[in-house]
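Sample entry (258 residues):
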Amino acid sequence: MPDVHWHLRRQAWSIREGGRVVGHAASIALRDVTFRVSASGVARIRLRQQREVVAHARGVLAESGPVPDDAVRVRFDPYRAPTFTLPDGSPIASAALVSFLPDGSCWAVPVPSECPMRSVLVALALFVTAAPAGAGELWPQHDSGWRYALVVPAGPGRERFGYVDAEPARLSGWTVTVTCGLQDSRTGRVLYRLVGRGTSNRGASPGFGGTWDWGDGRRGGSFVVTQSMRNPEDLRLRAEFTALDCPRRGMGDLSTGD
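Predicted structure, serialized as tokens:
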């Protein structure tokens, strides 16, 4: 995976792979990021009062785009702290997504903590048990397949999409294929796409949810689609996804997938 650090003289971001600089960029984005700092390097800087590269961000190259609304500024100053820090001075060791901008600033979407995701995780817990009495009034049931599609704006000229395609599982619930990514809102051209597989089920709350892993073995996320017993025929439904590459939440469409 590439390492990224700010090149002070070039006023650009240096991209390093295998310990060798392979290029420079005015802006770049990484996902699944870890922030790395050499403790001995920080000590040398403080002792000699001379700059050197002792810190970088390592992650997977991602599609560059507008800085997400929930991103926070991240800084590294070896004279203030031996770690990358958030605006309140607390350390940050990893991030779900980092945007490196032409002005030398670094903006990160922190890895979701237990508290912000609690509502989704609690809701998801309701879908790991067998379907309760009365759930039969809601479609789909375990003997039929379905498709859920959610598309939301993702900056000028772009849309983020999340599709869940389900087939009945052997015992109960469904096996699902989850497809998420980014597309051009004008032409529909897919800019990037990730595909994963997992399982889904109903539970004590009206609706259904599930979890999946991406095709490359990385952990994917979870999703929850909410239904209403008052309007069981509604196919325009609210959903939430926890994976960064999927839409966070919104109103999408449930169909047979045909």
